[in-house]
Structure formats: structure tokens, C-alpha cells
Amino acid sequence: MSVRVVRQSKYRHIFGKVLKKENCYDGVRVTRSSQDGTFCSANSKFVAICIEAAGGGAFLVLKTTGGGRIDMNAARVCGHKAEVLDLAWCPFNDNIIASSSEDCSIKLWEIPDEGLTENLTEYLVDLQYHQRRVTQILWHPSALNILLSVGQDDKILIWNVSTAEILVEVNMESNIFCASWNYNGSLFATTSKDKKLRVHDARSGEVKQEGNGHEGAKPQRVVFLKDNKIITTGFSKMSERQYALWDADDLSNPVILENLDTSNGTMFPFYDQDCSVLYLAGKGDGSIRYFEISDEPPFIHYLNTYTSSSPQRGLGFMNKRGCLVNSCEIARFYKLHQKGVCEPISMIVPRKSDLFQSDIFPDTVSDEPAITAEDWSEGKDADPNTMSMKTFYHETERETKMATKPKANLLAKKVTVKSKVEEPPKEVEKPKPKKVVIAASTPVKTEERHPPKKEETPRPEPSKPSWVRDHHDDVPKQEVKPQSTNAASAPPSVSNAKFDELMQEMKRLKATVAEHEERIKTLEEQGVTSNKQINDSEED
């Protein structure tokens, strides 16, 4: 009996979601260059797109918070003499962008925070050395002002852009397809037309490792992973699209080699080094595949595929600092359509909780460089500085209320505290005394009504009936404080006039009680006399 076990992964349910139409850009004249490039680059502030322009190369710079239709005469960057082939935003300054062109030059531009309001023609730096068109440019991951450029003149140059100085020049034997820095920028990998995969020392250009790449003749792409591994995409002899995983210390054989499909578009790899997620998007395809890379075999695990009916002319991958953390967005692409539409696609990991999800948002690369260009040229290496993604998390309204609301111990027992001062007892309505009327002529039986007469003993002073209450009982007992003058005899809480009135009422009640007692005593004596007369008559 076989048991199917589903691999557990926090990114297993990742899916792609297109933003609303008002967040898309329409009317973009995407370049028609035949060069194998992405033609788009994005950061947390701007998205740049290579476009068709009369009289030279140009590219648009749009704010990521905008959208809508783009005017044909919208402001653009137009300083190149030929088509722009590649764009790269500086990782340490979101307002600086580098562009390479068919005019063999590399230029650096500064974009204002509010975006472009007029055409920008003044550049910061102009780097001139390549003899043929420059197809790719890459910023150093941790050193400030270090830029790598790949030209069709079989040269790789590493620049210090602050001084426009070439630090390293690498001459290759064949046309170079692609290059990629490693995590700390001490090495870089290249793929070339001779179907070779190489790892170079970044400061000397010396080849550290070399191996046979994909067997197909079409362009190959390369990405250096965080754990000293390399991902390449290319074609087989039968023109099947492939991806391969390599160990940077041994390029003799790939660790993994897999066929994808038989399409003929170049496959572009995009790597999220924070989440270890690899995205593969083919030029001319309508889909984006994503995989998770682990340290254990089989190393590459398929997650899912985003599909669309519209083919992609280019694709821009935004850095992690621009993602919407509250929406659990771990990546975002800007897809260029052939119909002139730039469509943002969010990669979202679904979560039920609105709180910050630290497991899917590990620390990411910050905008602070770890070393300077001078430190790097002197041989110093450093990993990129990192920052917490919780910096970009905005507290929800419920969390804000919980933070401001005073916290109480909800599990504590409720205790009722009784006051030490007792309230005065409520006054009970006094029952009215019943009138007792006994006729003198009516005989009364001794055995039923009265016990035999006994010796008279001295009577105690009559007690008060239950229905007679002293008015002093209604007044709560209070501590009497000594007072001046002759008012010490009166209760402190009752006025003198009220006290006199109460005393008179008490005397009247005592007199009434005494009258009733005398009357009862008289009636009893009359009853005894009547009984005696009856007994005497019976004896006669």
C-alpha cells in the first residue's frame, strides 16, 4: 500500500494576482528591439520601461503608485543616440538608474522624487569604453558605486561609477550571453556562445571554474544563488527548454537538469534570495513558473504556475522593499504586453491572519551599502546589510485600538467590595393597635381564658410592645464629636427643634401605653369578681 505524502512548504499555495485596471499602465510603446532582454526594471518608487522613440533611444519612468493611460508626449529620459537595451536601478539609491544602449555607452540618471515632469537629457555619468552595444548592466550587491557591464565586443568591465574608472577588464573568447554576481560580490558567473558556464574572480577576472552548459545554440541565462549554487536556463539539442542547478565549486556535471517544454522563447530566471523562490518566465509566453529551492535533494521543488492568455514582451522584477507586506505580497512583476500595456502581477502567499507574517518575510537587503568602492577595490568583501521587513508593515485599525486600549486582567475574579459605612435601616410601617371591647355582662370561663390566680409578685416594668419603636433606632449610630456650647446633649445629625419634637412624641406614646395597661388591669379585676359571684351562686 503506497502512501502519498505532500511536501510541506509555507510557499506551497502561492498564487499570482493581477492588480486592478486603474493600477495598470496603458498606451506604453514598448521597444521592438530583437535583443534578448527584459526591457523593464522596477524598485519601490519607480518602474522604468524601454520604449520606441524617434531620433534615438529613450525610456519611460513611471511611479509605482500611479496607473492609467500614458500620454504619447509624456516626459521621458532621452539621452542615448540609439535604442536602450537594459536598465538597472541602484540598490542603494532609489532615484539613480543606469541605462545601456546600442550606442555603446552607459549612462547614469537621477530621477526626482515626484517623477518626470519634462524630458530628461542631462545625465550624471557617461561611461564610454565598449566598442559594440552593451547588452547587460549589473550593480554590485554590497559595494557602493560598483557596476558590471557586458558588451557584444566580448568584454566584461567592472566600473567605479563615481570616478568613471574601469577597475577590472575581462576579455572573453566568445560572445557573452549573461552574467550574475554572487551574494557578496566576490565572484561572478557567465554563460557564452561557446556553451560554457564559467565562474570568475571579480577582481582579477580569472576563471575559477568552468564546465559545459546547455547543449543548445540559443542564448543561455544564469543566476548566482545565495548558497554558492548556480541556476541556468537554456536549450537542449532538440530545442527543448531546460533549467539546471550547478555547484559553483564543481561545474563538471549539473546537480539537476530538467526539461520544461518545447517553446522557442528565451527563459528568464528571477531569484528571490530572501525566500529562496525561483521564477521562470519565457519571452513570448503567458505563464510564470515558480519553484522553491532547498538544501536537500531534489533541491528544486515545483510550486505552481501563473497563467495568462497574453504573451509577455518583457518583464520587470521589483525588489522586496516595494512589496505590500500587509497583503502578504512576497514578489511583484511588471509584465509588458505587445499591445502597449504594463501590468503589475503580485505574488501572494494566502494567510488568514492580518498580523505580520515573519515566516514568509525574512530580513531583506537594505538600502545601506556594506562597503565603499575603494574598500572593494582593495580586496575587502562583505555580505549585504539587511533590514527587517516589519519596517514596511502598517498596523491595522484593530491593532491600533488594542494598543491604545488599557489592558485589563480578563481572567481575574470579580470581587465586590462592601462599604464599611452601613446604610440606615428602612423604617417599617407601624401596625395600628386593635381595640379590645369586653362586655361586663358576658360570662368568661376561667379554664379557657384565664389560669388560676397565683400569688402576686412584684411586676417588672412593662416592656415596649413590638409595634412601638423608639425613634432613636431610626437614626444611624455615628461617632459624636465634642462640640462647643450646650448642644452636646443633642445628636449631631438632628437639629434641636427636631429633637424636642421626638421627645414629646415619645412621652405621648408612653402615656398611651400606661393608659392601656391600667385599662387591661381593670378589666382583669372585673373578670375575677364576676367569676367569684358565679361560684357563690352555684354553692347556694
From TrEMBL:
Amino-acid biosynthesis recorded as keyword: no
Highest rank taxon of the organism: Eukaryota
Residue ranges of the region described as Disordered: 419-499, 520-540
Bias (Basic and acidic residues): 419-431, 445-480
Comp. bias (Low complexity): 484-497
UniProtKB keywords: Repeat, WD repeat
WD repeat extents: 77-119, 127-169
Keyword Repeat: yes
Residues annotated as domain DUF1899: 4-68
Pfam families, per the entry: DUF1899, WD40, WD40_4
Family the entry assigns: Belongs to the WD repeat coronin family.
Record's protein name: Coronin
Lineage, highest ranks first: Eukaryota, Metazoa, Hemichordata, Enteropneusta, Harrimaniidae
